[in-house]
Design brief:
The protein is of the alpha+beta class. The chain is 40% helix and 25% strand. Strands 1, 2, 5, 6, 7, 8, 9, 10 and 11 form a 9-stranded mixed beta sheet that branches. A hairpin with a 4-residue loop joins strand 8 and strand 9. The structure holds serine.
Length: 878
């Protein structure tokens, strides 16, 4: 029996023997593509080749691609765990023809591999073929049908509709008819009862699609029109985990050696046995699946967060925590404990996992702890909601309440339902769904982008050459343009035949500048990249888009970005020298104004370490290392000279190696010609952005100069104020003196208050009572913060005292009422008295029955307020 590793190796070996180049998986987290957050199919990394934007690096390729289907058109999240063959993250084995072989070889080789290498039984295999779509003008795929007929009896070939047999990556883009290969895993007796043919594509867990052969021949345009692609390609995708299930004779992907080690560890940690109870089984499958998705995403540089891809990862992780919490009784972090097992299993094939193990464990652990706390808060809130519902004699928790729990506290609806059920309550799911839809519509509208189709001016134009490493100005023509509407604003996107504009990529901001034709100057407000194509954004179209233009990059802005980008490389190098080689880049942002660099490190970087890092960078700047670049090296060449690179560079990319002295990185960004141009480097902050990831913000060049000037200026200002060049000493003396004075003032105020208490006590001793109560009402002169103490001293020593005092200090005015214990029992309430009387000073406040105080905005009403309080008290004494 083949193990999963052997199965993968056999696949790659087979296609290598058919002339395919074996390429590594592209990262699962997609960077620099606004249309996609995660790789959801093997073809994603080759999209630009299919579209004709980039030349293929070879005519045939094969790989095992890490995929994640959790958002957009392909989203399997809700099925995961409940069935035995869907996953969030999975591997897709693929073979690719870029304008080379087409349907015949694709079908023949798929057949040869399955039946002669993997020895699958022929009578359990079925193939589906596209039946055609007259409304789209696409005929039945007779060609594929005939090729299958060579291998399979006709009753094993099934015609399928657009849903099953026309593959599309998204709403637009490369697409085409496809042939799926299905396998019938059922027992012989079940096969006798119902023909496998009738079970294909019916959702049966044991009659499943294992391989999809896509014949890419169209491009789906905006509005749905299909346009033939310039070249026809093959894109195949075989579900690796499903293939392992078939080859290992199992009935569930989770029973294969891909998942079993993780499942058994979950079983051990939780004390439950897999296979005993459907509910705990689902939970174990969810956790085993999600562990992979989360760990691989973190290894690819995507940390959990509250936005975009980071939010998707956070939700997957929370889903796993919740299943563990609800069904397996985990109330402490547990997913992080599974990481070493996963790394042991997959770390060979995917070294990024091994290299980042420590980071993966600490990020998951922190996320788990935080969410377990949220769960506890959510449960106590839900308890409150449930008691309210019960006290009102109802049996249903409102959809609004359930939605608030879900939306504000991340509390999942099915958990709310479960807890409600345990309390004999239900949840208004319709109401919840209405709220959810409304929220989705709100965020859809906020993010809505409408793109028109491209208007092709030079359809024959191919790649757009980037000439901006060498020049900031170039003569260009517009090869295509389109209108884009976003957030109610209309913009135009232009593609040139060549461009000096750097398109935003790898953290560096896109260039800005001008497009000039005669007297017409159009501002290019940004440059972005889509499918490897630099796109220039302008607010209006040029008068004649077919004219010849001069494209000019804004030089000061570009130089700013270049300085900051080169400084980022020096910073990376310096951090590794000072902190160690565990430091890896986790993200960066480079703009003309400054730089931000995120990196793995497990504690705060101390002030001394930061100082050393800054010194090393500034030393490298003074060394004036020239930029040494190799624009056309292979990934292996770069690795051999120790270039620092993010894992999973895309195979076939033109790799550019950038060296400044000791620092060697793979990088497509723009740089200074020698480090001296950076001028000066200044770190302005260091902070944590998540478990195990720190962030440094820094500035260079003139910005650093201005920053230092500002510091020097404020220092001078302080020197002038303290009249002493030794600022620290002088400021310390001022602070000490201030503390002493404050103490003295406190002391004298206190003495004044005590003497006032004493004199008033004496006075009260002479006063007559009113029905047993001595009422004192007057203005006093005391700081507001002493009133409470003053009033308490009097009321506590004179139990039959009713004291009303007012203080006015400039614009501020306060009224307080304090009642001795004998007065309170007579039904007089200080809080009520103050509330009513303080209307005279336009104030508000209150307190307890024995003491209350209010601040007001009308000092001139103080006497009236005191009088009012007095009369309210006296009325009660009558
Ligand atoms: N693109 C196809 C799929 O994802 C085949 O690789 O199913």
């Amino acid at each position: 029996m083949l193990t999963s590793s052997q199965t993968r190796a056999e696949f790659l070996r087979f296609f290598e023997s058919k002339g395919h180049t074996v390429v590594p998986s592209a990262p699962m987290v997609v960077k620099n593509d606004p249309t996609l957050m995660f790789t959801n199919a093997g073809m994603n990394q080759f999209k630009d080749i299919f579209l004709g934007n980039s030349a293929p690096f070879a005519s045939r390729a094969t790989d095992s691609q890490k995929c994640l289907r959790v958002s957009g058109k392909h989203n399997d999240l809700e099925e995961v765990g409940h069935d035995t063959y869907h996953h969030t993250m999975f591997e897709m084995l693929g073979n690719w023809s870029f304008g080379d072989y087409f349907k015949k070889d694709a079908v023949d080789w798929a057949w040869e591999l399955l039946t002669e290498v993997y020895h699958l039984p022929v009578d359990r295999l079925y193939a589906t073929v596209f039946e055609g779509a007259p409304d789209e003008g696409v005929d039945m795929d007779r060609e594929a049908y005939d090729y299958w007929k060579k291998h399979l009896p006709e009753n094993h070939i099934i015609l399928g509709n657009k849903h099953d047999n026309f593959w599309e990556m998204g709403e637009t883009g490369p697409c085409g008819p496809c042939s799926e290969i299905h396998f019938d895993l059922r027992d012989e007796s079940d096969r006798q009862k119902v023909d496998g043919r009738d079970m294909v594509n019916q959702g049966h867990p044991l009659v499943i699609e294992i391989w999809n052969l896509v014949f890419m021949q169209f491009n789906r345009k905006v509005g749905g029109r299909l346009e033939p692609l310039p070249h026809r390609h093959i894109d195949t995708g075989m579900g690796f985990e499903r293939l392992c299930m078939v080859l290992q004779g199992k009935k569930s992907n989770y029973d294969t050696d891909v998942f079993q080690p993780i499942i058994s560890q979950i079983a051990t940690l939780s004390g439950h046995t897999y296979g005993n109870d459907p509910k705990t089984d689902v939970a174990m499958r969810v956790i085993a699946d999600h562990l992979r998705a989360i760990s691989f995403s973190i290894a690819d540089g995507q940390l959990p967060s509250n936005v975009k891809a980071g939010y998707v990862i956070r939700r997957i992780l929370r889903r796993a925590v919740r299943y563990g919490y609800t069904y397996l009784g985990f109330s402490e972090p547990f997913i992080c404990k599974l990481v070493p097992t996963l790394v042991g299993q997959m770390g060979e094939q995917f070294p990024e996992l091994k290299a980042q193990q420590q980071l993966i464990v600490s990020v998951i652990c922190e996320e788990e702890s935080a969410f377990l706390r949220t769960l506890a808060t959510g449960i106590s809130l839900l308890d409150g909601v449930m008691s309210k519902v019960k006290s009102e004699g109802k049996t249903t928790i409102g959809g609004g309440d359930a939605f608030t729990l879900y939306d504000t506290y991340g509390f999942p609806i099915d958990l709310t339902e479960l807890i409600a059920k345990e309390n004999s309550l239900t949840v208004d799911l319709d109401g919840f769904n209405l709220e959810l839809q409304a929220q989705k519509a709100r965020s859809r509208n906020a993010a809505a982008v409408e793109n028109d189709d491209w208007v092709e001016l030079k359809p024959e134009a191919k790649d757009c050459d980037f000439v901006g490493y060498d020049t900031l100005q170039a003569e260009v023509i517009i090869t295509k343009y389109r209108r884009v509407k976003t957030k109610g604003k209309t913009l135009y996107q232009l593609v040139f035949d060549r461009t000096p504009f750097y398109a935003a990529c790898g953290g560096q901001a896109g260039d800005r500048g001008e497009l000039i034709c005669g007297t017409e100057h159009l501002a290019v407000i940004d440059t972005i990249k889509e499918n490897n194509l630099p796109i220039h954004i302008v607010e209006q179209l040029p008068a004649d888009p077919t004219a010849d233009f001069v494209a000019v990059v804004d030089r000061p802005l570009r130089l700013g970005s270049a300085r900051n980008h080169s400084a980022t490389h020096l910073l990376h190098q310096a951090l590794r020298t000072v902190l160690g080689n565990h430091v890896e880049q986790k993200g960066s942002q480079v703009t003309p104004e400054g730089l931000r660099f995120d990196f793995s490190h497990f504690q705060k970087v101390s002030d001394e370490e930061l100082r050393r890092v800054e010194q090393l960078v500034n030393r490298a700047i003074r060394e004036n290392y020239p930029l040494v670049e190799n624009r056309n090296c292979t990934v292996d060449e770069a690795k051999s000279v120790g270039a620092m690179m993010l894992f999973g560079e895309k195979y076939g990319d033109k790799v550019r190696m950038v060296r400044f002295g000791e620092s060697v990185e793979l990088c497509g960004g723009t740089h200074v010609s020698a480090t001296g141009c950076i001028g000066q480097f200044k770190i302005i902050s260091e902070s944590a952005i998540s478990a195990g990831v720190r962030r440094i913000e820094a500035i260079t060049g003139e910005a650093a100069e201005r920053y230092v000037d500002l510091l020097v200026d404020s220092m001078r200002e302080i020197q002038t104020i303290v009249r002493n060049p030794s600022v620290a000493q002088a400021v310390k003396a001022v602070v000490d003196e201030n503390a002493e004075l404050r103490h003295a003032v406190e002391q004298s105020r206190r003495e004044k208050m005590l003497s006032l208490v004493e004199s008033l006590s004496g006075e009260i001793g002479q006063m007559k009572s009113n029905n047993g109560v001595i009422v004192v009402a007057r203005r006093i002169e005391l700081p507001v913060e002493m009133i409470r103490d003053f009033a308490f001293r009097l009321k506590d020593s004179i139990p039959n005292l009713a004291l009303v005092v007012g203080v006015a200090e400039g614009e501020k005015v306060n009224l307080a009422v304090a009642l001795g214990s004998e007065v309170v029992v007579r039904g007089i309430n200080a809080g009520e008295t103050v509330r009513t009387a303080s209307r005279e000073i336009e104030g508000g406040g209150g307190g307890q029955p024995f003491f209350a105080m209010a601040g007001g905005k009308k000092p001139e009403g103080l006497d009236a307020a005191i009088a009012k309080a007095k009369s309210l008290i006296e009325d009660k004494l009558k």
